[in-house]
Design goal:
Elements lengths: L1 H5 L3 H21 L3 H22 L2 H21 L1 H10 L16 H16 L4 E5 L13 E6 L2 H8 L9 E5 L2 E7 L15 H12 L3 E5 L6 E5 L2 E5 L2 H12 L10 H10 L2 H19 L3 E13 L5 E4 L4 E9 H6 L7 E4 L6 E6 L12 E6 L2 E8 H28 L1
Parallel strand pairs: 1-3, 8-11
Antiparallel strand pairs: 1-5, 2-4, 3-4, 5-6, 6-7, 8-10, 9-14, 10-13, 12-14
Length: about 425
């Protein structure tokens, strides 16, 4: 671990932060759902698989590999709605400015609000779905085509208890009722308050899979709630409901303008314990996998010349060379340049300039480390007779002594 941290690079930090962001978004999407428990189980299996592979257990690794191949298909089937929502959130076109919706007739909005609170006063349950951009045909099942006007008598007659089409939701598209008695997908969120009945769970389920705006009237409590994007908000009166309808259907909901510093602060500090826990988990997972990752590194290592013939002397040889090695990051990170050297055997050297090749046999590497190549692959060495070198050194020393005597005699004459 220490060696990995010592070789930690800024690209590794970007890698960890990117996966942390994705993991936190998945956590936010699946939190408090049955799918979240499945996701935790898959993560646990992934950790076990990594440990098994790192320990070199052949049979267990093979079984897990076969299991993961089948599991990928199962994940696509089980998490199809969630995968679709993740892809929609990641759509870069969603960042582009959108056209505002068509302005709705104020009298129609007032009619809906009055009808909703009248049903709430009479304890008549109701679900009203307002279509926006997303297609709802694959989400609303068993609906009956209607295509009727929006009026208070029609709304009250649809949801009155003795109506054959009261048990379901109506779909409003524009200024028309397009469908009645439709059944919505239930939410998979667990631990919801007991006051939320089947209508609230259905509204939540649809809002989690689309951008639909939904009004729910509770039959038991006579309360009105607005649901969108997986959030439920209680509505106190007709004025507040009319305002919400206009905001959502006209897409004029104001977005607060935040400075760059505020955005960064919110991205880090909002729900920071969860984000910190996600970061720590991703970091530990990265450390576990990084040690097994194939990694390449180039090092400058010294060259030592072995077995020089006793009658020869090597003049001005290259002292270093570059080697390129490959292995698991854990092993490569533990290497130090001082621990490696090239031992070149020159026992066959002869007088003059000779060429020697640097090969893998000239360097000893720890187990698990492979040598890719050496630069340079060959060196040209100059050998001279050692006796000539000794004579040359004596002549040089005598010349130096004579020069010293001459310099002293000149100094005395002065």
């Amino acid at each position: 671990m220490i060696n990995l941290l010592m070789n930690f690079k800024w690209l590794d930090l970007i890698d960890i932060l990117l996966i942390t962001f994705i993991a936190y978004q998945l956590y936010s999407l699946f939190h408090k759902t049955r799918a979240f428990r499945i996701l935790i189980g898959l993560i646990g299996l992934g950790v076990i698989y990594s440990l098994v592979k790192s320990c070199g257990l052949f049979l267990s690794t093979w079984v897990f590999q076969v299991f993961w191949q089948v599991l990928i298909v199962l994940i696509i089937i089980v998490f199809q709605p969630e995968i679709r929502e993740v892809l929609e959130r990641a759509n870069p076109l969603s960042l582009l400015p959108e056209k505002r919706g068509v302005a709705h007739d104020p009298s129609m909005v007032e009619t809906i609000s009055q009808a909703v609170f009248r049903m709430a006063g009479e304890r008549t349950g109701a679900i009203i779905v307002f279509k926006q951009k997303d297609d709802l045909q694959h989400l609303i099942r068993d609906g009956i085509a209607f295509d009727g006007e929006i009026s208070e008598p029609i709304l009250l007659s649809i949801f009155q208890k003795y109506s054959p089409i009261h048990d379901g939701a109506i779909l409003i598209d524009g200024d028309r009722i397009k469908q009645v008695s439709g059944f919505l997908p239930l939410t998979e969120k667990a631990n919801l308050p007991t006051r939320y009945g089947s209508r609230h769970r259905a509204a939540l389920g649809l809002s989690e899979q689309s951008d639909a705006f939904i009004i729910v009237v509770s039959e038991e409590r006579g309360q009105v709630s607005a649901v969108q994007y997986g959030q439920i908000k209680r509505v106190p009166d007709t004025k507040a409901l009319s305002t919400l309808i206009v905001e959502h259907l006209s897409q004029k909901k104001k977005k607060s303008k935040l400075s760059f510093q505020d955005l960064i602060s919110r991205a880090i500090l909002d729900h920071w314990p969860r984000k910190l826990a996600t970061f720590c988990f991703v970091f530990l997972f990265w450390a576990l996998l990084a040690g097994q990752q194939n990694y390449s590194l180039d090092l400058i290592v010294p060259i030592e010349y072995k077995n020089i013939p006793p009658n020869l002397e090597l003049t001005s040889p290259p002292k270093k060379a570059k080697i390129f090695i490959k292995g698991t990051r854990k092993l490569v990170a533990s290497l130090k340049p001082d621990d490696l050297r090239i031992d070149l055997n020159v026992s066959l050297a002869q007088l003059g300039r000779r060429t020697f090749y640097l090969s893998k046999e000239d360097i000893s590497l720890p187990a698990g480390i492979q040598l890719e190549y050496i630069d340079p692959t060959l060196v040209k060495l100059d050998f001279r007779d050692k006796s000539d070198s000794q004579v040359h050194d004596r002549i040089g020393k005598n010349d130096h002594r004579d020069n010293s005597k001459e310099n002293k005699s000149r100094d005395n004459n002065r």
